[in-house]
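Narrative summary of target 7.
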Amino acid sequence: MKNTIVQCPMSNVRGLLTSDFGLRTVFILFLLLTSDFGLRTSDCLYSAQMTGVITTIKGEVQVLPYQKNTWQPSKVGAFLYEGDTVKTLKKSQAAITLTNGVVMKLNQNTEFSFDVTGSIEKISSQIKMKAGQIWSSVRPKTKFEIHTPVAIVAVRGTEFDVNYGAGKLDLAVYKGTVNLKNDYGDVDVQEGESSSASGGQSPEPPKKMEEKKDGWQEEVKIKGTLKIELKTAKPVTDVPFEIAISVYDADNKLDKNAEPEITVKSAPAGMSFSSDGANWVNELKTGNVKEGIIKLFAKTSVSGVNSIIASSDGYAVGQLDITVIPSKTKNLKVKVTSPNGDDELLLKFKKK
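Modeled conformation, tokenized:
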């Protein structure tokens, strides 16, 4: 049998090198790689990080999950992960909010993939664009790059549009500054300017835009933003805690008249949600928004960092990163005397 070499993320290997058990494990892995047993990619533990959420779909959008061979139809509220590839079909458009706050609008026949970075800090910061047109809004000081075969679009806090096809990239900048670069040179494109790049030559000097937006970006409307607030000071495992989700309009004002259906779930999955504290589900859909706000309950049996995601059709997603601490349990043994004899009860108390 032919040997197979697997490239594992260093974050998965680093923990193995910190103990005698880890050293032995690495040694065994080395033996496997140099023997006829080989090693499958699935033998290397990898946990894909979430990169964004689809917030709007017009027409058809498909996703090719990382290391899979079958395209799957997607829907509003679907999570996207490192390594996933996204494409819009003919006469279709979509909007996506990334975990770093970047908002992307995709025109028809657009295809791109998220990089597998292996670094928490770089998640959602880089995509590879194969074809199509992407409008992006990037918050100040947020690093974001679009890689194409002919050039790289690098930004920090701006609004711009990239159209790539037939070996040519066209860039239009509506706010801020964008750096367009390849192996032959680079240019800074300012607000109100455009540039282009193709293979084998440096990007063209920026020039003033003669035309405004195509108009398709306005068709993919973002009504506002969902914001999540933690109402419990210190969430602990296995104890319900309260969250509040607020609906803000496009002007970032609380929309007291909005009554959207909101979907709430967690990343990683495993957290449960309830609107009444009695009925719990991993993915909660609710439309009971009053005066622009809805209060819900959440709980989990796993300690550590969790992300709560709230999404609704046409709204930028809300994301709340929380740290859940282990609950403190105190055992108390009680001796009970009955006509049948003495019994011992073990009572467990959890401190909230």
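The chain has three domains: 10-43, 50-219, 224-326.
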